[in-house]
Amino acid sequence: MSNLPGSVLFLCTRNAIRSPLAEGLMKDELQHARRSGVFVASAGLYPTDIDGFVVSVLGEQGVDMHRHQAKPFDAHSDGGYDLIVALSKQAEGEALEAMRAQATDVESWDVLDPSLVDGTRDMKLDAYRETRDQIRARIKERFDFS
Q1: Among 70, 61, 62, 82, which residue's Cα sits nearest to residue 20?
Q2: What are phi and psi for residue 109, nearest 5 degrees?
Q3: Domains of the chain as residue ranges with CATH
């Protein structure tokens, strides 16, 4: 575990699935730990609307992302973050390139992309839950909320 940074940006390709999951879960962990002073956001390389399954699986855990607005990475690539967590290979490459002259750390987390899972609605929801749970575990492992 390590100390909490002052600001974290979760970055993925579309800011529709993995990065909003991470943003919502990180904010939830901070709230439960009664920690303030950490700015958390998410962005995408090619932002689109949030995936409905994301809203559903976060809602199962009391995290409301109904009002999430996808944001482009260009609006956040000025080095104003202490840490960028890339949740796709493409996002990792773009973040490393954009931050090479900045004092921003970039990490890459390998988590399931649930949009690649085919099957019934229940099978897809299970994949989204698995991704949600992977991200929550990584957040708890990476950050010290005490």
Answers
A1: 70
A2: -110, 125
A3: 7-139 (3.40.50.2300)
